[in-house]
Amino acid sequence: MSHNTFGHLFRVTTWGESHGPALGCVVDGMPPLVPVTAEDIQVFLDKRRPGQNRFTTQRQEPDQVRILSGTFTDANGQEVTTGTPLSLMIENTDQRSKDYGDIKDTFRPGHADYTYEAKYGIRDYRGGGRQSARETAARVAAGALARKMLPGVQVRGALVQMGPHKIDRSRWDWAEIERNPFWCPDPVAAKEWETYLDSVRKAGSSCGAVIELVASGVPAGLGAPIYGKLDAELAGALMSINAVKGVEIGDGFAAAALTGEENADEMRMEGNQVAFSANHAGGVLGGISSGQDVVARFAVKPTSSILTPRKSITRGGEEIDVMTKGRHDPCVGIRAVPVGEAMMACVLADQWLRHRGQVGSK
User: Fold this and answer.
1) Can you give the three-state secondary structure of 18-29, one letter per residue?
2) Residue 40 belongs to what H/E stretch?
3) What is the C-alpha to C-alpha distance for residues 297 and 222, in angstroms, rounded to an integer?
4) How does pLDDT run across 199-237, given as a tens digit for each residue?
């Protein structure tokens, strides 16, 4: 299977399957002498970890990361990167492969079972194998490393819509995302979502979500005008996350309803700094960061594994009804928040290295 690597100078290769003994990643391009420990990475893995509340899959994985290479203890006793590839491993400890025995010869609707079989002639039906969202744990680990090399940059994500229910942006509070199980910045919406998702979960169904990402402190100049556009690479990275079906930068599709006067982010000087009247462009102009917050949103479809029977076929072409058993997220968008943050951090780290390599440190 090809295409397991993303990035140019900050390169991440993920490996492993949902029900294999372990999964992980190799990160190449990390500069030397960056302080990093397993605890630095674990903080972000704990945000994504399954089984933390009734609204996510009850698979119990500690997601403890091990750094296998790429660090060394310096003269001051501090663990730092050496500039060589960092290999990270996360063991799988709570696989229940027997849950998937009934569908080993069945293509689950909404999943990649059929397309994997059509392309490779073989698939790991245990939890989806390589197609499982379990793979994203490795991305979160890589994103933790990316954050370590982005001085002054803060990457945050929030769930802004669950099913048809949106937040009220007038109540946006970043501190609130740590106080509820949905990473929701609106305390009122978070409370309403509990009732809504409980009803979805008890019905054996699922719902989609929209996640908003904001990177603050990004300097002007990251990206390129043509094929290395910051927004294009960010969109591609977010689209690579399981179940993502749409990405927008800044106002995105809403910009189509604006006039040119409304959409223009007017500029002025504030002392020696350029200031903008608005950020409809999401911090990216002509593929290059403007120095404003980089803003992106992505839409996650409803979890395909549900208890409601859906029509499908077997490998032999027999038409059947499929009901997917196992432990699944009623809204996979919840745990997609730290994954989206990680992908944004990796793209920014890669763009930062490429920018520095072309124009220096200016």
Assistant:
1) CCCCEEEEEEEC
2) helix 38-48
3) 19
4) 999 998 999 999 999 999 999 999 999 999 999 999 999
